């Protein structure tokens, strides 16, 4: 931020990682609006994340320097803010996480009156931020929609009417990928329904997962590891960690990361990406492990950098900080970049196995579920052992079944004796 005369400051785009020329998809304020510190001013959307640029302090918006569709990078000025008293309550244009549910049937939906949040696109059509977002999700060209709102404004009902009207093809047409779309249906004719908007995280991650599933030939290999001794050692470390002056938790995840790093070193194909031309492997000599974290808004994958240089205690402390940051929605785009291999753990929930989707451009992902006691034959008798199911999904263009089996066996071998993780 650079200070300008009359106690005004130019608010600029903060560090957004390696992204540049990121389009603005929402402008939440207009000149004259009073905002509080951390209120969202504009929303940016890259191909991997949607992020808000927050107000650095309370004050009044003097000038908005950008509009929807503009592309910005770190340091780009977005508006001028005069420091002062903030808003008593957040204005409607600042509340976007809790949009009202859309009605199942077409009844008039009142929209906020006045110019705030009302933006004309290149074709001259007028629609508020929520309507434009809904149009993008449904793939509707606003220029083709008949507006019924005040002063030619397009409402959510106009979008629903457009979907049901004669302008919509009755037969599905092939999409750009050549895959026929699922035909739209009026579910309300079968019984009561309501529409619940997807969380922002799901809106962003959905297309990414879909792209990975369509482009990567997935295969999942199942195995299991005897972690009886490892879990006993983990429990000892966890008790000591809880009694520390700065308490933390030691979970199985720290040991999984250590085991994965060792296995990745033994099988570098798993720590690679396919080149853009598809004729070579880019083998990475660093080990950044993505950790899938469950949050109220959906699954996010922050990255633990240089995991090969960190011990169990350091990893455990970092996991606690990452999880809290993710649940509070404070992860920056840079926190989720640069991963070489991902771990998705459902251990705290349950299950016996699943098929995790490869986090492209990575070539493999490890899924783990809850460990369970099982009778294991020792050669002379059955003994109870704590077994951990492992689900390894991989890109079959890079990794074949035999290599996947060897990698999974190496993981199991490492987890079955905690001393091997120290080598």
Description of the structure:
- The protein has 423 residues and is α+β, with helices and mostly antiparallel strands.
- It folds into 3 domains: 2-94, OB fold (Dihydrolipoamide Acetyltransferase, E2P) (Beta Barrel), CATH 2.40.50; 119-197, E3-binding domain (Dihydrolipoamide Transferase); 204-422, Chloramphenicol acetyltransferase-like domain (Chloramphenicol Acetyltransferase).
- The protein has 7 helices and 23 strands.
- It has helices spanning 129-138, 156-164, 200-215, 228-242, 252-266, 312-327, 401-415; strands spanning 2-4, 8-12, 22-27, 34-35, 40-45, 50-54, 59-64, 71-72, 77-83, 119-120, 126-127, 153-154, 218-226, 272-274, 281-283, 289-291, 293-295, 298-300, 303-304, 341-345, 364-368, 372-377, 382-395.
- Strands 13, 16, 19, 20, 21, 22 and 23 form a 7-stranded mixed β-sheet that branches. Strands 1-2-9-7-4 form a 5-stranded antiparallel β-sheet, with no helix packed on it.
- Helix 5 (252-266) crosses helix 6 (312-327) and helix 5 crosses helix 7 (401-415).
- The longest helix has 16 residues, at 200-215.
- The protein starts with a strand and ends in an 8-residue tail after the last helix.
- 30% of the residues are buried.
